[in-house]
Amino acid sequence: MTRLPRLHFPSVHTRRRSRLLAGASTLAAALALGGCNNFSGEEQRQADVISAFYTLHLKTNAPGLPPADELRQYQPLVSRALYTLLTQAEAADVRYHTMVGNQAPPIVEGDLFTSLYEGATSFSVKSCDSDDQRSSCQVAFEYKKDGAAEAWNDKILLVREDNRWRIDDIEFIGNDQSSQREYLSDTLADAIKEAE
């Protein structure tokens, strides 16, 4: 009688291990393709706040000042000082349009949180430089839509409040195309004054 060769089937443990290794390889490749930076723990926390903020912003991508209900979504991500300025500017915009009518242009036109009037379609946190209480992060933005393409960097300034990093201001660096003042806080302060 001829003996058939014995077939070898990998054990459940071996199959599980192979799937884990394949999954890890896929994740590593995705991170490499996505341009993931190797941030330290603090830098990663700063990058996470910025990512959460701009992910939320790009979802609506609405120009001008966010309405009050949208502003509340930003509250956990921004400093108390910046949140106060944002809510004061939004309230000033509402008062202004109540007085002059809704036909008047908004007191802040274009994208509020990036240098480019049209806003961004994608972003990537490139680097962060920080001490114990303050941080400055370079963020690369891109706008690609309807055949138009722009790329620029802005600087996001963070502060530590209640042991958490929060966005405190934005420095609009851009490529000389900024529709804003140099800092977000200046743009908001001007908008509040203009509406008085």
Characterize the structure shown.
The chain has 196 residues and is of the alpha+beta class. 42% of the residues lie in helices and 22% in strands. The protein contains five helices and four strands, in the order ααααββββα. The chain has helices spanning 12-33, 41-60, 68-74, 80-100, 184-195, and strands at 122-130, 134-145, 148-161, 164-171. A four-stranded antiparallel sheet has the order 1-2-3-4. Helix 4 packs parallel to helix 5 (184-195). The termini are far apart.
Euclidean distance between termini CA atoms: 101 Å
Q: Which strand order does the major sheet show?
A: 1-2-3-4
Low-confidence stretches: 1-36
> What does the overall shape look like?
globular
The percent range for helix content is: 40-55%
Mean pLDDT: 81
Largest sheet: 4 strands, antiparallel
Structural class: alpha+beta
Beta-sheet strand percentage?
15-25%
Could you spell the SSE succession in H and E letters?
Answer: HHHHEEEEH
What is the strand tally? 4
Q: What's the oligomerization state?
A: single chain
- How many helices? The count is 5
In short:
It contains 5 helices and 4 strands; from the N terminus they run ααααββββα. With 196 residues, the protein is α+β, with helices and mostly antiparallel strands.
